[in-house]
From TrEMBL:
<dbReference type="GO" id="GO:0005886">
    <property type="term" value="C:plasma membrane"/>
</dbReference>
<dbReference type="InterPro" id="IPR036259">
    <property type="entry name" value="MFS_trans_sf"/>
</dbReference>
<keyword id="KW-1133">Transmembrane helix</keyword>
<protein>
    <submittedName>
        <fullName>Resistance protein</fullName>
    </submittedName>
</protein>
<dbReference type="GO" id="GO:0015244">
    <property type="term" value="F:fluconazole transmembrane transporter activity"/>
</dbReference>
<keyword id="KW-0812">Transmembrane</keyword>
<keyword id="KW-0472">Membrane</keyword>
<feature type="compositionally biased region" description="Polar residues">
    <location>
        <begin position="40"/>
        <end position="51"/>
    </location>
</feature>
<feature type="region of interest" description="Disordered">
    <location>
        <begin position="40"/>
        <end position="64"/>
    </location>
</feature>
<dbReference type="GO" id="GO:1990961">
    <property type="term" value="P:xenobiotic detoxification by transmembrane export across the plasma membrane"/>
</dbReference>
Length: 147
């Protein structure tokens, strides 16, 4: 399961040092794989992606200079999706253990921010005395930290 580690600093460093041989992305292994990310609706009630693109192109402009994407009201539109419902890089498909680790890290980091901000408050009188500043200036450190 190298997918979660691929985007970490360690994974990117190992990827760079190995000349992109380690932790390769799926579209680097199979360059035609990105075409699977284009979603087309096969139902008869809604138009296909090509028909939608043609319709938007006729209404709001044309294709960009390279002939890719669609220009909509002066902005180029690029639709990006997953490679499929079982794409291992989709966070919804991560194993339960990995989801739990990520959730735990988020809780710990959130807890650390609240603890760090409350630790500063008892030291404000000392900051006011040491630097001879008002309470407003002493509180500035806490205010800037929590922003």
């Amino acid at each position: 399961m190298d997918s979660p580690f691929k985007t970490t600093i360690f994974g990117q460093l190992m990827r760079s040092l190995s000349g992109n041989r380690l932790y390769s992305y799926p579209d680097e292994v199979d360059p035609s794989l990105w075409k699977k990310a284009v979603k087309q609706d096969s139902s008869s009630t809604s138009p296909s992606l090509n028909e939608q693109t043609d319709h938007v192109s006729k209404e709001a402009g044309a294709q960009d200079a390279a002939g890719h994407g669609t220009i909509f009201e002066g902005h180029s539109v690029l639709l990006v999706g997953w490679y499929g419902p079982d794409d291992p890089e989709n966070p919804q498909n991560y194993p339960f253990l990995w989801k739990s680790v990520i959730s735990f890290q988020m809780c710990i980091l959130n807890f650390a921010v609240y603890i760090a901000s409350s630790i500063y408050v008892p030291g404000e009188p000392g900051i006011m005395e040491e630097f001879n500043v008002s309470e407003t200036v002493a509180t500035l450190g806490l205010s800037l930290f929590t922003m």
